[in-house]
């Protein structure tokens, strides 16, 4: 997902607007990505308890397919108003993604100061995703990168106020969501999370986080924290809120055309009276520009589960995954790629038979590994 905020764009309109002595300039940009691939997977969970290979055409691969509008207006004195509306689409079938939302990827408006940073309001990425996006070897690729295991399923949150700013080599950010608007994790996902903003229940479905990054020369590092407080729904209705916490640190170092990355993520998810999961996630990898057109990526993830009051949530062995990407750019806007991954003690993206992260790669009963490979094409506009 290296592309989450950096996709190439072309201008739709750039109109200078003058009123009296004011000289504010406005622009709106249309941008997007279409990414499709042909995929083959082994040990896929089939009807009943069977196992089968799967052949598929997917609408996302290195990137999630989307289109969007990005706007900015110069208000003078280094202050600008900004907005983003971004819609996820199925590159294979043209359907709206993110549960059918029109602008499910992003929808926010705010103010940006050249000196003091930016504050925005709406549906936005979490601080943890922004912190780790440039420290994940495969750039949070939509296909096979275990993004949900790394940062949680709610990496976009509704009803969010977010601040970000860059001051020399240091970048900082923080956010607060009054109601995350999404499912938050483990067990029966349909019974966790929601829109929040319920009178008298301020904590219900809230979320918050912060980040700080440093970049100077070939070295970069980041630390980040994220928490969501999902509502727990029982047979009698609302049963209280859980607490899902994650903290992470990562670093990278560039040597010539290669960027080496490593990171660690701590996690704990609790419901009233019990610990659902307590896990650690480690990763390391390298991104290598072999030529001006060809880049190679290799990354490895390793997950350990610790204490839990629900043993069924612990897989039989520690999940791990090895992933490789070869990406060939035909032009500045179009590339062809090969991506492949092998997971042990889990499905691809570190899905397991007991913990489904909504990636859809749960292994069949009795299978403790999966292999996947995809050939794709991506076009940015």
UniProtKB/TrEMBL annotation:
<comment type="subunit">
    <text>Homotrimer.</text>
</comment>
<keyword id="KW-0812">Transmembrane</keyword>
<dbReference type="GO" id="GO:0015288">
    <property type="term" value="F:porin activity"/>
</dbReference>
<protein>
    <recommendedName>
        <fullName>Porin domain-containing protein</fullName>
    </recommendedName>
</protein>
<dbReference type="InterPro" id="IPR033900">
    <property type="entry name" value="Gram_neg_porin_domain"/>
</dbReference>
<keyword id="KW-0406">Ion transport</keyword>
<dbReference type="GO" id="GO:0006811">
    <property type="term" value="P:monoatomic ion transport"/>
</dbReference>
<keyword id="KW-1134">Transmembrane beta strand</keyword>
<feature type="domain" description="Porin">
    <location>
        <begin position="11"/>
        <end position="346"/>
    </location>
</feature>
<dbReference type="InterPro" id="IPR023614">
    <property type="entry name" value="Porin_dom_sf"/>
</dbReference>
<dbReference type="GO" id="GO:0009279">
    <property type="term" value="C:cell outer membrane"/>
</dbReference>
<keyword id="KW-0472">Membrane</keyword>
<dbReference type="GO" id="GO:0046930">
    <property type="term" value="C:pore complex"/>
</dbReference>
<keyword id="KW-0998">Cell outer membrane</keyword>
<keyword id="KW-0626">Porin</keyword>
<dbReference type="InterPro" id="IPR050298">
    <property type="entry name" value="Gram-neg_bact_OMP"/>
</dbReference>
<keyword id="KW-0813">Transport</keyword>
<feature type="signal peptide">
    <location>
        <begin position="1"/>
        <end position="24"/>
    </location>
</feature>
<dbReference type="Pfam" id="PF13609">
    <property type="entry name" value="Porin_4"/>
</dbReference>
<keyword id="KW-0732">Signal</keyword>
């Amino acid at each position: 997902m290296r592309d989450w905020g950096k996709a190439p764009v072309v201008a739709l309109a750039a109109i200078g607007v003058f009123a009296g002595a004011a000289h504010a300039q406005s622009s709106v940009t249309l941008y997007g990505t279409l990414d499709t691939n042909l995929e083959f997977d082994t040990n896929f969970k089939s009807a009943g308890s069977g196992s089968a290979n799967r052949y598929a055409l997917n609408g996302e691969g290195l990137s999630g397919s989307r289109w969007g509008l990005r706007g900015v207006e110069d208000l003078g004195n280094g202050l600008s108003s900004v907005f983003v509306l971004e819609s996820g689409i199925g590159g294979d079938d043209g359907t709206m993604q993110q549960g059918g939302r029109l602008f499910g990827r992003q929808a926010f408006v705010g103010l940006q100061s050249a000196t003091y940073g930016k504050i925005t309001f709406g549906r936005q990425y979490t601080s943890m995703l922004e912190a780790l996006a440039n420290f994940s070897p495969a750039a949070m690729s939509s296909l096979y990168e275990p993004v949900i295991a790394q940062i949680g399923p709610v990496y976009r949150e509704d009803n969010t106020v977010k601040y970000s700013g860059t001051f020399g080599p240091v970048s900082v950010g923080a956010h607060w969501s009054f109601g995350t608007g999404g499912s938050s994790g483990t067990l029966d996902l349909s019974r966790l999370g929601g829109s929040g903003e319920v009178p008298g229940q301020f904590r219900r479905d809230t979320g918050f986080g912060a980040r700080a990054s440093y970049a100077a020369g070939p070295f970069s590092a980041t630390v980040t924290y994220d928490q969501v407080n999902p509502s727990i729904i029982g047979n009698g209705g609302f049963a209280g809120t859980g607490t899902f916490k994650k903290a992470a640190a990562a670093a990278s170092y560039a040597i010539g055309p290669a960027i080496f990355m490593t990171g660690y993520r701590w996690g704990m998810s609790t419901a009233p009276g019990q610990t659902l999961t307590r896990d650690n996630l480690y990763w390391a990898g390298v991104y290598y520009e072999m030529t001006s057109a060809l880049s190679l990526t290799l990354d490895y993830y390793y997950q350990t589960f610790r204490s839990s009051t629900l043993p069924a949530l612990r897989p039989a062995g520690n999940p791990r995954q090895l992933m490789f990407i070869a990406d060939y750019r035909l032009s500045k806007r179009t590339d062809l790629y090969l991506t492949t991954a092998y997971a042990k003690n889990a499905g691809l993206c570190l899905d397991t038979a007991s913990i489904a992260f909504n990636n859809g790669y749960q292994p069949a009963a009795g299978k403790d590994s999966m292999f996947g490979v995809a050939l794709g094409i991506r076009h940015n506009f």
